[in-house]
């Protein structure tokens, strides 16, 4: 799912999501900063998982 698609889905359901109303009220720059931070956190988590597997395999 593309970030814009995810945002559109969230915005459509904004009244029922706890943070939807808050996000819908932000300007584009702040929404982008939040999405970037969340993307970085998710990517960092995946990196840690891959690194654990790499180290457990004897760096092979």
What this model shows, in words?
This protein is 73% helix and 0% strand. It has 60 residues and is mainly alpha-helical. The two termini are 32 Å apart.
Q: End-to-end span in angstroms?
A: 32 Å
- What class do helices, strands and sheet pairing give? mainly alpha
Compute the gyration radius: what is it? 16 Å
Order of helices and strands: HHH
**Uncertain segments of ≥5 residues (pLDDT<50)?**
none
State the share of residues found in helices, binned by percent: over 70%
pLDDT averaged over residues = 86
The total strand number stands at 0
Envelope shape: elongated
* Number of separate helices: 3
| Major β-sheet annotation | none
- Name the beta content range: under 5%
Secondary structure layout:
Blueprint: H1 3-12, H2 20-24, H3 28-56
Task: Give the key terms.
single chain, 60 residues, mainly alpha, 3 helices, 0% strand, elongated
Summarize the structure.
This protein is mostly helical. 73% of the residues lie in helices and 0% in strands.
């Amino acid at each position: 799912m593309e970030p814009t698609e995810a945002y559109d889905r969230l915005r459509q359901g904004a009244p029922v999501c706890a943070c939807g109303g808050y996000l819908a009220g932000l300007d584009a720059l702040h929404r982008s900063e939040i999405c970037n931070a969340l993307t970085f956190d998710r990517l960092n988590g995946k990196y840690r998982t891959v690194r654990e597997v790499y180290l457990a395999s004897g760096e092979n």
